[in-house]
Design a protein that fits this description.
Elements lengths: L16 E3 L1 H5 L2 H14 L2 H4 L3 H4 L2 E4 L6 E7 L2 E8 L5 H14 L3 E7 H9 L3 E11 L13 H11 L4 E6 L5 H15 L7 H11 L7 E8 L2 E11 L4 E9 L7 H15 L4 E8 L11 H12 L6 H8 L4 E9 L8 H9 L4 H8 L18
Parallel strand pairs: 4-5, 10-11
Antiparallel strand pairs: 1-2, 2-3, 3-4, 5-12, 6-11, 6-12, 7-8, 8-9, 9-10
Helix pairs in contact: 7-10, 8-9
Length: 379
């Protein structure tokens, strides 16, 4: 394991470094570092399409052996994903907490349970925020058995509606198909109350045949009609893929997504892919725990009960595949003001801070008293 810091990647005197997205785009050395760490160590949130919108910037730890994908507001820093060796995580997190404190900001780190407990052991809080759902051994996945009865029923129900097939499509290979997929995304958007800007950005890339290199697109047809489009993103560190985005039409019969996902799993298994992640589900399974910030926990459970931050349905949908569920937590300093956590929710709802821009141009607009409903990632 390299222990010295590569020159020029950290700040002055070897200090941790915050790198804005446009600066990263101009720095080949930093791009190589980020690519290397994501390839070797990155997990679902590092490669997710939504990450580029929710956390477009990079925080480089003091050692430059670990990075966080980050976003911020005037009083808040939010780390959406970590990429680096496990043994470097705690030091990188401490660097971020220190960096935020120096700027009079509150750091919030989103992580799965093992790493959140590591931070809790160092004195930080860990408040439940959702779950990560994955199939770590794809070759062992089967539709057989009583536990899969509901999933088999859904797939069978869909197949009864005609000739059904799922096939991979190379974006840009057929303009008519590109337009059809873009139209499907628009149809799906019409059924949602609030969406992150990454959906529109990604639709534009599909329409222009410019799918990111780490993504694959699978289309499901019923009697020749396009019912759904599923984007999966490569997870090289886990020899696997992440189910990243799912779009479907209003008239797709029940079981359509289950059918498509099962066919994608069959394809990946034949390719020798080791794992398949159903992705993060935020706004569910947020029971109180001993390590939580009680004020933040109470806020989240209140928003969940009001269905402002509630994704139980998506959690139950993914559970039909019998995945391994690992709790996700947000870690913060114990003395952090609970009011600052609203900024984290607003990053999900408005990652590009467009609301603030509008308020700055309309000073007379009244301040919002309730957080906007977070725009949960499409998966």
């Amino acid at each position: 394991m390299e222990t010295s810091c590569p020159k020029g990647l950290t700040g002055r005197d070897g200090a941790p470094r915050w790198v804005e997205q446009d600066e990263l785009n101009r720095d080949p050395a930093l791009q190589n570092l980020v690519h290397s760490l994501v390839t070797r160590f990155g997990r679902e949130l590092s490669v997710a399409v939504a990450r580029s919108s929710l956390a477009p910037h990079v925080f480089v730890s003091r050692s430059a052996q670990g990075i966080f994908f980050v976003n911020r507001r005037p009083s808040t820093v939010f780390a959406f994903a970590y990429a680096g060796p496990d043994e470097c995580f705690a030091d990188a997190a401490c660097d971020l907490f220190e960096y935020a404190a120096q700027g009079k900001r509150v750091a919030n780190i989103l992580e799965e349970e093992p790493k959140a407990r590591e931070l809790a052991a160092l004195g930080h809080t860990a408040t439940a925020f959702g779950v990560m759902q994955k199939l770590p051994r794809l070759a062992g996945f089967s539709l057989e058995g009583t536990k899969m009865r509901r999933l088999r029923y859904q797939i069978s129900h869909y197949e009864k509606h005609g000739q059904c097939e799922t096939r991979e499509y190379g974006a840009g290979s057929d303009p008519a198909t590109d337009r059809a997929v873009a139209g499907l995304v628009d149809e799906w958007k019409a059924s949602k109350k609030q969406l992150g800007p990454y959906v529109e950005h990604f639709k534009g890339r599909i329409a222009n045949g410019e799918l990111p290199g780490h993504c694959r697109l699978f289309l499901t047809y019923r009697n020749g009609q396009l019912d759904s489009a599923i984007v999966i993103s490569r997870l090289p560190a886990a020899n696997g893929y992440l189910m990243d985005l799912e779009f479907y039409g209003a008239d797709m019969p029940p079981g359509g997504l289950e059918f498509a996902i099962s066919r994608i799993q069959e394809t990946l298994t034949k390719e020798g892919v080791g794992s398949f992640s159903l992705g993060a589900t935020f706004g569910t399974q947020m029971e109180a725990c001993a390590e939580e910030d009680p004020r933040v926990g109470k806020m989240l459970r209140g928003l969940h009960a009001s269905r402002i931050f509630n994704n139980d349905g998506n959690f139950q949908f993914k559970n039909k595949f019998r995945p391994e569920n690992t709790r996700l937590y947000v870690s913060r300093s114990r003395d952090a003001p609970s009011a600052s956590f609203t900024d984290v929710l607003m990053i999900f709802a408005d990652p590009e801070n467009r609301r603030q821009s509008r308020q700055e141009t309309a000073q007379s607009a009244p301040a919002a008293t309730t957080p906007a409903a977070p725009a949960l990632p499409a998966s």
